[in-house]
Design goal:
Strand content: 15-25%
Number of helices: 8
Largest sheet: 7 strands, mixed
Structural class: alpha/beta
CATH topology of the domain at 9-194 and 295-315: Rossmann fold
Shape: globular
Order of helices and strands: EHEEEHEEHEHEEHHHH
Radius of gyration: 19 Å
Strand order of the largest sheet: 5-4-1-6-7-9-8
CATH class of the domain at 9-194 and 295-315: Alpha Beta
Number of strands: 9
CATH architecture of the domain at 9-194 and 295-315: 3-Layer(aba) Sandwich
């Protein structure tokens, strides 16, 4: 193991965005009255292209994120790591994208993850993407991603997760591809902690913010965009989890279930399971983009805890 001096597992994070998955792996945060304990992971290297996301990451996670094109910085990664994580861009795979699959300029960046895995040979890696990767028209793309990782000698698990089943107040479905080296066992996925009848609703998550006036420092600001077709006219339902928060909503984020306005960025952050202590260092549009691109920290924490258990069971290390 490549443990850090304080006995934590070394983690390299790619396509970190503002840090949703990274926060989940470090843990030590609270959300809606539940505490998600600190986990034995130390993120020793991180990268993202978006400057607002990098500023936000530095404010909330750590100063070490490298801002820039991943292809320009692969050589700065450490030689070894225990864990590699990253949500490679989904724009060419998403049902709202252009359908280029992994041949597209953005989603083709998964190849940078393949190179990173080949370079650092982690015990386990976790790659996240949209549900669209499992759709029939993306079968060739999915097969290529799995085959490229498998060719490096990894056992691959590909599974769809529903964020609401893990305590996130959002109907968000995401694919996690997990690879483990032979000899360290197959990955055992986390078990959902909630059933549909006990999902956290939008009202559960947002009710205490209803009377709060706008507050830019708290990111409690909202778009004034008028109603528009499809996504732009959606309204949260008080008794159900929120709809998926999208990155490219262009101000057309969902309307509040009760109030005559669109939801604020702080409310969107709640729907994404970010703690209120998480500060977004950007204005409204960039914050919208960061939130829509993020992995919900609570969902990521559940994946990270399963990774911890996997490493402990296969290494004989008791934390």
């Amino acid at each position: 193991m490549n443990l850090t001096t304080d006995g934590k597992y070394k983690v390299v994070a790619m396509f970190s965005g503002c840090g949703g998955m990274d926060l989940g792996f470090t843990g030590g945060f609270s959300f809606l009255g539940n505490h998600y304990e600190a986990l034995p992971f130390d993120i020793v290297w991180a990268n993202d292209l978006n400057e607002a996301a990098c500023r936000t990451y530095r404010k909330n996670i750590s100063e070490h994120i490298i801002c820039g094109d991943i292809w320009d910085h692969l050589h700065t990664m450490p030689e070894k790591t225990d864990v590699l994580i990253g949500g490679f861009p989904c724009q060419d795979i998403s049902i709202n994208g252009k359908g280029a699959g992994v041949d597209g300029k953005r989603s083709g960046l998964y190849r940078a993850m393949v190179q990173a895995v080949e370079k650092m040979n982690p015990k386990i890696f976790v790659a996240e993407n949209v549900k669209g990767l499992l759709m029939k028209h993306n079968k060739e793309s999915l097969d290529r991603v799995i085959n490229d990782f498998s060719a490096l000698g990894y056992n691959i698990s590909c599974r769809l997760y529903h964020a609401a089943d893990f305590g996130v107040p959002q109907m968000r479905e995401r694919v996690f591809i997990v690879g483990t080296l032979p000899g360290v066992g197959n990955f055992i996925p986390p078990v959902p902690c909630l059933i549909k009848e006990s999902h956290i609703t939008a009202q559960d998550a947002l009710q205490d913010l209803e009377a709060l006036p706008e507050n830019a420092e708290f990111s409690h600001i909202w778009s004034r965009a008028n109603k528009s077709p499809d996504q732009g006219s959606r309204q949260l339902k008080a008794d159900k989890p929120g709809q998926t928060i999208r990155a490219e909503c262009h101000g057309n984020i969902q309307f509040h279930y009760k109030l005559s306005r669109r939801i604020s960025m702080r409310e969107a952050a709640r729907i994404q399971s970010f703690p209120d202590s998480f500060i977004f260092d950007a204005k409204l549009r960039e914050t919208e983009r960061m939130l829509g691109n993020a992995v919900p920290p609570v969902l990521a924490w559940n994946l990270a805890n399963a990774v911890r258990l996997h490493l402990e069971l296969t290494s004989g290390i008791n934390k």
